[in-house]
Automatic annotation (TrEMBL):
Originating organism: Candidatus Uhrbacteria bacterium CG22_combo_CG10-13_8_21_14_all_47_17
Record carries keyword Nucleotide-binding: yes
Similarity field: Belongs to the class-I aminoacyl-tRNA synthetase family.
Catalytic activities: tRNA(Tyr) + L-tyrosine + ATP = L-tyrosyl-tRNA(Tyr) + AMP + diphosphate + H(+)
Organism lineage: Bacteria, Candidatus Uhriibacteriota
GO molecular function: ATP binding; RNA binding; tyrosine-tRNA ligase activity
Protein name: Tyrosine--tRNA ligase
UniProt keywords, alphabetically: Aminoacyl-tRNA synthetase, ATP-binding, Ligase, Nucleotide-binding, Protein biosynthesis, RNA-binding
Keyword Cytoplasm: no
């Protein structure tokens, strides 16, 4: 049997970080992981578009943690289920895709996923397509599959309940979707599945089916979707969805366009920052510190994760130049700081933009101080100086660039 890691610290991180729910329970799953047995987990993606995006990467990040512990990982391309159309979170029926459209969409998925998952080495990710078993099913197989579920169970889905209340149609092929996704678990004989919380119903359908057909437990790990406190999500309709084909500059800029309410969830889901640090950031924002400082830091971390440090440096510099070029002089004096974190008042005094802290507080309260082209009115604000530097402006003519 292949050796897996039972490092309790790594397992605790896996169970807590960016996880919303674990079924049947976190305790049962932890006990199984500590047994040292190699388990098989999968993540399924329906190729409804030509590129993977940050939402996929958040889930793959959890999958990568399982792979590093030594467990078997499957990345499943739902080339058959994509033609049906997942009704999840849809108030109307999805447009069904052709076989040709589906195959065109997923051509580059493996290459894109390789920035998170390891498809080589001693424990490579296994890439599978669910048409291999679903396309072979006959009508008798489908009837047998349907016999494991009741209409009442399927009608419990929120989107179906809402459509019925609004007198909108629910088509039979939409009913069949969770059954077919559930059958993926049986066909691959997995031990667990990872996915967003919007897929909970579908993933639990697989758990039900695996128990009934093979008498086997299936663990389901869900992560939250990236959204602000009002429920506003990152996505195509908002124009801020980060695709893996985006340039580093576009990735950075899209994070900067997120609502302030997405900053803390972004740290939780897209970085490895400890929860104590995330809570500290949340308190600072709530206390009135400029959220733009943290949004820049988050944007930088996300680009580092997806594209590397050099690309992130260039993206941050590009953003600064684009958003400040209309006011920046050709030459700006630099001031070195001993730590990347410094109070705005201290930075103004140390860089000699202000003669005293009293002078600095007066100018800040008057709205005469900008940091990277953003007006700061909180003189208790703490700045974070990135590698690319941070530009402070006093009035219209006085500038200094803080560097570490």
């Amino acid at each position: 049997m292949p050796k897996t890691s039972t490092d309790s610290a790594k397992i605790d991180w896996l169970l807590k970080h960016a996880v919303e729910n674990i079924y049947p329970s976190k305790e049962a799953f932890k006990k199984r992981l500590l047994s040292g047995e190699q388990l098989t987990f999968y993540y399924g993606i329906d190729p409804t578009g030509p590129t993977l995006h940050l939402g996929h990467m958040i889930t793959m990040k959890k999958l990568a943690e399982l792979q590093k512990l030594g467990h078997k990982i499957i990345l499943l391309i739902g080339d058959f289920t994509a033609m049906i159309g997942d009704p999840t979170d849809k108030s109307a029926t999805r447009k069904q895709l052709t076989r040709e459209q589906v195959l065109e969409n997923c051509k580059r998925y493996k290459k894109q996923a390789a920035c998170i998952l390891d498809f080589k080495g001693k424990n490579p990710v296994d890439l599978k397509y669910n048409s291999k078993w679903l396309a072979k099913m006959n009508f008798a197989d489908i009837v047998d599959l349907a016999s494991h579920f009741t209409v009442q169970q399927l009608l419990e889905r929120d989107m179906f309940e809402n459509r019925m209340k609004e007198s909108k149609p629910i088509y039979m092929h939409e009913f069949m979707y969770p059954l077919m996704q559930g059958y993926d678990s049986v066909a691959m004989n997995v031990d667990g599945e990872v996915g967003g919380n919007d897929q909970t119903f579908n993933m639990l359908a697989g758990r039900t089916l695996l128990k009934q057909v093979k008498g086997k437990e299936k663990y389901v790990i869900t992560n939250a979707l990236l959204a602000d406190a009002t429920g506003k999500k990152m996505g195509k309709t908002e124009g801020n969805m980060i695709a893996l084909t985006d340039s580093p500059e576009d990735m950075y800029g899209k994070v900067m366009s997120w609502t302030d309410g997405m900053i803390v969830p972004g740290y939780r889901l897209c970085t490895d920052l400890p929860e104590v640090d995330v809570k500290d950031i949340a308190k600072k924002i709530e206390a009135g510190e400029n959220p733009m400082v943290f949004k820049r830091d988050l944007a930088y971390r996300i680009v580092v994760w997806l594209e590397g440090e050099e690309s992130a440096d260039q993206a941050a510099e590009h953003f600064t130049s684009i958003h400040s070029k209309h006011e920046l002089p050709a030459e700006i004096p630099e001031h070195k700081v001993s730590s990347p974190r410094i109070l705005l008042v201290d930075a103004l005094v140390e860089s000699r933009l202000c003669s005293s802290k009293t002078d600095a507080r007066r100018l800040i309260s008057q709205g005469a101080v900008r940091v990277d082209d953003e007006i700061f009115t909180d003189y208790d604000a703490e700045l974070f100086v990135e590698k690319t530097g941070l530009i402070i402006q006093k009035g219209k003519r006085h500038f200094v660039k803080l560097i570490v």
